[in-house]
Amino acid sequence: MGRREQQGRQEEFWIAHTELPRTAAHPFYEQLNSPRLVFAMAANRDCPPLLARLHPSFHTPVLAISLYASAAWVLASSGSFVWLVALGSGGIALYYIGTCASLIRLRMLRPNVEALRVPLGPLLSILGIAISVAVIAGLKKSELLALGIPAIIATGDWVWVRTSQRKSGAAMQAASR
Are the C-beta atoms of residues 61 and 110 closer than 8 Å to each other? Predict the structure, then answer.
């Protein structure tokens, strides 16, 4: 094998092992990022502060890692991954609905902001919402239930953060008087 061919293979190997794990959809990235995301949310008081505790020796978010590993084990050992694909597609569809709806609202609130203007933008947003609703409507009842569980957890977290911010805001106002 010539030097040039060997160098090309080394570059392919380098790309496969350095760039691929950095992509957001890659499982390796998710395994490394998700516990740190829980830790960051807890450190910013978006989750219970208990999840922001660090291991005394290794300085790693041990409770966040343990929580993520336990949840991953339960999901992986519960059977087929077909429902996980349905859950992922439903979650992405909900994300797209929020993004398309916010685009319409932001264009109404700030019509003169310098931004990329796509012809028929609001119409395309409505089309995106309709397609996403069709994806969600195609899910089975059990898949909708599985999609609802994270939504309930996220709503509970939002309520917790909102009430804790109100309490801390009231305490700050009382302290400043």
Answer: no
